[in-house]
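Posting this for the archive.
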Amino acid sequence: MSWNRVAVVGGGLIRFGELFDQSYEQMAHGAFAAAVSSVDKGFDPHQVEAAIVATQRGTLWGQEGIGGNTVPSAIGLAGVPCTRVENACPSGSDAFRIGAMVVASGVHDVVLVIGVEKMRDKSTDEGLLSRAASGHPIYNRAETAPVLFAPFATRHMHEFGTTREMLASVAVKNHHNGTLDPYAHFQSEITVDQVLASPPVCHPLHLLDCCPQTDGAAAVILVNAERAREFTDKPVWVAGFGVATDHPYLHEKSTFTGLPVTTLAAERAYQMAGVGPNQIDMAEVHDCFTITEILDIEDLGFIEKGKGGVASLEGETAIGGRIPVNPSGGLLSKGHPIGATGVAQITECYWQLRGEVGERQVELRHGNALQHNVGGRGSGVSVVNILTTNNP
């Protein structure tokens, strides 16, 4: 089922990084202002009829009331209906999906989707991420994100001959892309040798195999497709989306060479969009660790199972490669402010489909872009969104 009832007409973000000089509300204001200023034919902020806010502030900080009631007033929209979305690492992706459904339903014609996260104002010693990973007192005792993903790397190595050099090539590629992205947290090149020599975190993952904790905010404006031309002559349409869930604990997993939750979410998105993985021009995927991107490109159907490491090492996922992946720099270089991550990925897809990203522009053959996040305890939830320039 391909429906194309919703258009993206604006998108913007602030530079990601350690933003100690900005409050949560200031970051949100900056992202919203950027999205508003990006609308080609101008946009009155008061045209926003509803807002969806993606943030993990409740889980990470224990402030469940923040987001749905503070963000609208902070960005000058006090009074609009607003809903906060927390769905682990795909929070921003799911907020976008929900915003698209709100518009498609006909309840609202203009919806703001905004993601914002402060990750650096607390130390990890204060339990910032351990809150998000908490669960059964025995099953996931002492688990951290690297501990959760390292078994996938070792099993992929065992079954398919994937090497640490292949993992490192993902980090090298994404840090290179980050040098081309003015919004990226890290904007410097690294080498395979530097990745291999960086401090070990959880074998076989080393420091440069891991994404940073990052502050950031991003926003997109969604409108009813019939009104898209009021705002721009170059709208990007929402073609499809998919969400799936999986068991939360490692001992319940059916495989350690892939994430079936991503495959299922992708199948639903492809079916809705009426396209296949061979019709995607570029993808922004969840590379919280180097192994994760290798799993992603296989699970999304871009690369044959077991060949993700080789494809990465040989440049198939580079900006000029067969299927460019994470031209923004990905989580490894751009950063991972959880609530903002998916919305920022959507913004990159929007810009790419409009041909607006300069040196990191990919070749557009089909007019389709894919965005993906996976996360939660044990990677228990995955969201895939597909955007297109093909006129509905």
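The domain at 6-123+211-388 is CATH 3.40.47.10 (Peroxisomal Thiolase; Chain A, domain 1). DSSP finds 13 helices and eleven strands in the chain.
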